[in-house]
What we know:
By secondary structure, the chain is an alpha/beta fold. The chain folds into three domains: 3-283, 2-enoyl-CoA Hydratase, Chain A, domain 1, CATH 3.90.226.10; 315-493, 3-Layer(aba) Sandwich (Rossmann fold), CATH 3.40.50; 500-709, Orthogonal Bundle (N-(1-d-carboxylethyl)-l-norvaline Dehydrogenase, domain 2), CATH 1.10.1040.50. It contains 31 helices and 20 strands. It has an eight-stranded mixed β-sheet, with helices on both faces. A seven-stranded mixed β-sheet has the order 1-2-3-4-5-7-10, sandwiched between helices. Helix 10 (227-245) packs antiparallel against helix 11, helix 21 packs across helix 27 (624-644) and helix 29 (671-678) packs across helix 30 (680-689). The two termini are 43 Å apart. Residues 320-326, 343-346, 349, 400-403, 407, 411, 428-430, 452-454 line the site of nicotinamide-adenine-dinucleotide.
Amino acid sequence: MIYEGKAITVKEIEGGIAQLNFDLQGESVNKFNRLTIEELGAATDALKAQKNLKGLVITSSKDSFIVGADITEFTDLFAGSEEDLVANNLKANEVFNAVEDLPFPTVTAINGMALGGGFEMCLATDYRVMDSKAKVGLPEVKLGIFPGFGGTVRLSRLVGVDNAVEWICGGTENRADAALKVGAVDAVVANDKLVDAAVAIINQCNEGKLDNLARREEKKGKIKLNAMESMMAFEISKAFVAGKAGKNYPAPVEAIKVMQKHAGLTRDKAIEVEAKGFAKMAKTNVAACLVGLFLNDQELKKKAKAWEKEAGEVKLAAVLGAGIMGGGVAYQSALKGTPIIMKDIAQAGIDLGLNEAKSLLTKRVSRGKMNADKMADVLNSITPTLNYGDFKNVDLVVEAVVENPKVKDIVLRETEDQVREDAILTSNTSTISINLLAKNLKRPENFCGMHFFNPVHMMPLVEVIRGEKTSDRAIATTVAYAKAMGKTPIVVNDCPGFLVNRVLFPYFGGFAGLVRDGADFQKIDKVMEKFGWPMGPAYLLDVVGMDTAKHANEVMAEGFPDRMKDENKSAIDVMFENDRYGQKNDKGFYKYELDRKGKKKKVVDEDTYKLIEPVVQGQKDFDEEDIIARMMIPLCLETVRCLEDGIVEAAADADMGLIFGIGFPPFRGGALRYIDDMGVDKFVELADKYADLGPLYHPTEKLREMAKTGKKFFG
Ligand SMILES: NC(=O)c1ccc[n+]([C@@H]2O[C@H](COP(=O)([O-])OP(=O)(O)OC[C@H]3O[C@@H](n4cnc5c(N)ncnc54)[C@H](O)[C@@H]3O)[C@@H](O)[C@H]2O)c1
């Protein structure tokens, strides 16, 4: 044994060749935490001290090579000063440089995933062989940073600027064939041949057939471009990447600037440039928010896992109502492997649901994501029916009939009589209280909400809603089924609108108020899109549908009359009264026309302005800040109330719900994180400026208390 640590062991395997193996004790994956980097340094020292070694193979005995840096260490690390961050990076880079400078040929054998720091480890060796099923990449930009263990330096020299920009700025995970094609790896083999292939490369180096030192010098030298080529490569990609990433995500463009700056430098100086750029990005609020988001997501996964342990098995599901949502649920369940019965009262409904599933599957087949046999299997696992024939075999039912409490009451009671006593009954209602729907059920303990978002196959969130009488088993089984469908479940308590719609409607309230006071709805959309929302509120209302929005608004007003009841007619009411339902019938705040590709395109409709004239009472031209404040304060305050009322268990649940459910700008981390970042005291101060607008703008007592005591939602 040459070295033995808790993450790394080094031993001689054959003919003077050493193997450095990553196997982080007590963890399911290898990651670059502080310990692993320290041990890599010590192991490299031990290797240097050995006499007569002929080569080194680096391996992992986990399913994946190394999944990346340990992100749980980022929050503390990034809290340090920029100088400390630079120093920290340079210290870590000394270790990677030492690996690169070892006095014999080095090869990494890549299995599973080698991402971020894991792939930077691979880049430090002379050669890379890769399992044909493995993936490699540098996804750091997804956390608002870029590679900091020499990745921008080595990759740009190894595969050229254009490819490096594509990999680093896109944060892509790249398959073996793609990696081989650009020269990021040198050979692709089956998993069980990895070490043999690595040893063969080392032997060839020692026989003089391969020149590993020339390889090394290429990585350590300057980028081989003349001034003109360099200008073309960097300037064009900067413009392209800036357009794609947008102003709110600075890391991809900064990565290019850093590569441009170090293009003419050799390794050690180039790494200094990278370290400085990295530290600058790590100190941005975007990085803090995106890292926070990653950690929140881990928390959610942990919670879901705990529920899954208590879950009953769902071998067969059923959905009631084959409409937009029912069809989507059937498709998603079947696609992910849980057969499902799809019941409707009308053949037309069933045809619609099946056609939707067929068209989604056809798209998958045409994109090469699925073959025709698999498509047939998926379709066959959806059983359409007009009666309750097989319901005795069903483990979980999703009710997705029309949003009407009376109809739902009848349908749920009827279903309860048809299923086994242990079957779980859920409702996809968007707004109706779960306790209300449970009232007339015989087994309310087996009932909860399972709120999907439209379109079901695209939207990641499922709210699992616990009623007063819902059992843990019902929640656990529903959470597990949502996971099996590939969704992110968040467990919330019952109230009108649950978490997401309860928070969304005050935001629409903010919108209605702005329009009433004279703001141009198109300007509001533009400002909120610039703020980071995928679409502005008027456009979103068109997508949701004015009838749905109006109905949900009424439920919310009844549930929270103190702040959500509005006696005045709003622009949304006007749209509804004029049959402008939005995208459904191609007319809402905007008009919708088909573009050349047959896709719906929104166009300005001057009629809208004429129609809403009677409800516009003011003539103020609002500036951006005003618009943002009037839109965001009601949304944020309602999120605070959801946390205070125990609708969500934790701040992280609330923020993730908004990001996954309504596309809250991820780089802002969520509503509560947004308040934290502004400073709770500053937020309260800002809200107080708008107090005249009514209770939607009035902070809770607890929030005022937090403002006084300096408490935050996170950390
Ligand atoms: N559309 C959305 O954006 C959205 C999002 C989340 C949740 N939801 C909720 O999902 C539910 C369904 O909404 P949708 O938009 O799919 O409606 P939809 O009108 O498209 O579909 C409803 C379907 O239910 C069928 N139906 C009516 N009575 C039935 C019964 N007794 N048994 C079986 N089927 C019956 C109808 O024939 C129709 O096919 C509602 O509760 C809605 O609030 C909708």
